[in-house]
Amino acid sequence: MSTIAAIGTALVGLSALVVVVVLLRAMPRATFALWAAVMFFVPVWVGAGLGNLFLSAITVVTLVAIVALGGDLRLSVVDLLMAVLVLLAVAQAVLGVVEISYSVTTVLEWALPYVWGRLVLSRVPASFIIDCLALCAVVAAGLAVVEFITRTNLFTLIPFDNSLYETWGPLQERNGILRAEGAWGHSIALGAALAMSSSFILASRWRPLVRVLALILVAGATTLTLSRIGLLTLVLVVALTLVLLPGIGRTVRIVIASAGILSGLVIAPFIGRVLAGAGQEAAGSAGYRGTLFSLFKYVRLFGSAPSFKGATVGGDYLGSFAKSIDNTILLTGLRLGWFALAVFCLIIALIIIPALSPARAGTASIAVTATAPSLFAVALITQFGMFFWFLAGLAVAQQVMRDAGSNAGPGRQSRGVHPVHFGEDEAAVPVPSPAPRRDPLLPGGSSYDV
């Protein structure tokens, strides 16, 4: 291709991108719906290469969404810590003490979705975000059930000639039973994503019966992933939501709690039989995660850990962990050092602490809080990591807006921040309030009940 042709192609592509951004800016709800659909239903191996850099579809859509809906942002301490974490990753890569791929992951898979989560509430109503994520989770759960029954994953029928497809494309089994994974590339990723989304189902504006049935479907699909992490996260999310999220009807709480107990009586024996049948594979999986903690001694203050190939602990060869470390906390330390790990943990802690108060808890912060323990047993694989960091950003946005509303004082609540209450056994309905003046090009308000 000649230079002139290349320049012409680039200009056409840039012009098309500008048109897309303008259209998406005029349709913030459609923008978020598009992003959510890509997150739940487009595998990470679908994307395009940019030189030596591969950009997954969800990364591209997230970047475009930020450009389209970006606006003013009230900074918080967590935002500053996130900036420090990114700066540490990039600076250490420049100094050559951290691999470039680690800094790219921090920027594209952690910081980018976090920023999107921080921005989206300024343009899209919280109620729409809740309903949209709940709907995507229900559809994904339905597809997971179909996958389990038919033993066919429709998303793996989208082959791409890249390493991501080779890694995440093959289907998993446990004790000869297919583990549902949907478009998430791994059963643990799907299970965790469905579990985190359960809080949004409970907080949606759907009728109580629909919410209960949707939650049962999601719980069933999570069970079909045969992931202990997914099931544990689901239990924690539902329990914290029922206890901390204000306004859920008493009848709904009783029905969900009762259904949870009955489901546990059915699910526990099923999972127990599967794990017992898996025998050495399941036991080895648990033992592997326990042995991983011995690698903490290799973490440096700054920079990546040295190679531990050839090293042994108690007779166990640690080199087998070189390519697979199912522990986000440990992996962050090994890749970026103790200082970066401390910043990482502080970010998560500052999201969790407010979430433990019913006065400040929201769906996003509850999801992050319930998922935090699993970070010691799973890496931020496929789009699960991006979804986690998006919810982290959304949780911070909720807390910032809530604080802004509180600081405004009685009768002077911050613009765009209106309380949302749940009627007894009714779906979430915003309390009527005078509509604030809005730029006609910026439709949609926001509430802090996310």
TrEMBL record:
Keywords: Membrane, Transmembrane, Transmembrane helix
Annotated stretches, region: Disordered: 426-450
Membrane-spanning ranges: 6-24, 31-48, 80-104, 124-146, 183-203, 254-276, 336-356, 376-397
Name assigned to this protein: Membrane protein
Annotated source species: Acidipropionibacterium acidipropionici (strain ATCC 4875 / DSM 20272 / JCM 6432 / NBRC 12425 / NCIMB 8070 / 4) (Propionibacterium acidipropionici)
